[in-house]
Specification:
125 residues, mainly alpha, 2 domains, 6 helices, Arc Repressor Mutant, subunit A, Diphtheria Toxin Repressor, domain 2, two-stranded antiparallel sheet
Amino acid sequence: MKTQKTTEDYLEAMLMMYEEHGYIRSIDVAARLGVTKPSVTYTTKRLRESGYITMNKDGLITLTPSGLEIASRIYERHKLLAQFLIHLGVDEQTAYHDACLMEHDMTEQTFDAICRHAKVTRDKH
């Protein structure tokens, strides 16, 4: 399934927030991604229309199974790539930043090769 970088960034951030706090709010998404509230409103509307999230009457966001699948795949890539870069000697802050840049555009073949090289077992989504 091919998705846009923005979609992946939002879904990944939502998953991370849910894991950290147990809930997802638009205002927190804006803060985490460094975007405006109107940008979040626009993007969450698109994510709802695409079936990736739902929102309750209080504005709390829930990832749907398809949204969770995308978020989990991207978040897994992010963590594994960051750990690989740290193992290579990159400082942690830079590794996590660079992993975020790499996670979206890397093919499955290249990601699998990095995992094999790093001897990392990954979940297949």
